[in-house]
Specification:
0% of the residues lie in helices and 33% in strands. The strands form three sheets. A five-stranded antiparallel β-sheet has the order 7-2-1-8-9, with no helix packed on it. The protein has a two-stranded antiparallel ribbon with strand order 3-6. It has a two-stranded antiparallel ribbon with strand order 4-5. It is built from no helices and nine strands.
């Protein structure tokens, strides 16, 4: 049987390399236990930054046959905030593109946690 896993449905992949979406500087340091990251294996075509886009949709658009879109405007984010692994250290100042390991024990990227490397 051929391997049909892709980046979006690869349940066996529980660790991947991700990168910070913005620079954490003296003027804008990391103040919480979360880091904004880009996950290029999940969304390789999205620009690697912390910006957002606004997208307009037709009023008769359906995501699938049972799910109509109820809003005409959607905001899409290029990055997501994820928490650091409890008990690990991470600098408060970092350059954009700093590498982290993302652990996803449930195979859901939004439930993952980060380790600074």
């Amino acid at each position: 049987m051929a391997n049909t896993n892709t980046a979006l449905n690869a349940q066996s992949k529980q660790v991947m390399k991700v990168y910070t979406a913005r620079a954490y500087t003296e003027k804008n340091p990391r103040l919480s236990n979360e880091v904004e990251i880009n996950a290029p294996e999940y969304v390789p075509t999205v620009p690697k930054d912390d910006k957002k886009e606004t997208v307009s949709m037709a009023p008769n658009y359906f995501a699938n046959s049972n799910f109509p879109i109820t809003t005409r405007v959607a905001t899409l984010s290029h990055s997501m905030k994820l928490p650091l692994l409890r008990g690990t250290t991470c600098p408060i100042y970092m350059d954009k593109g700093t590498a982290f390991l993302l652990f996803t024990p449930t195979a859901k990227i939004e439930e993952g946690y980060l380790l600074y490397i």
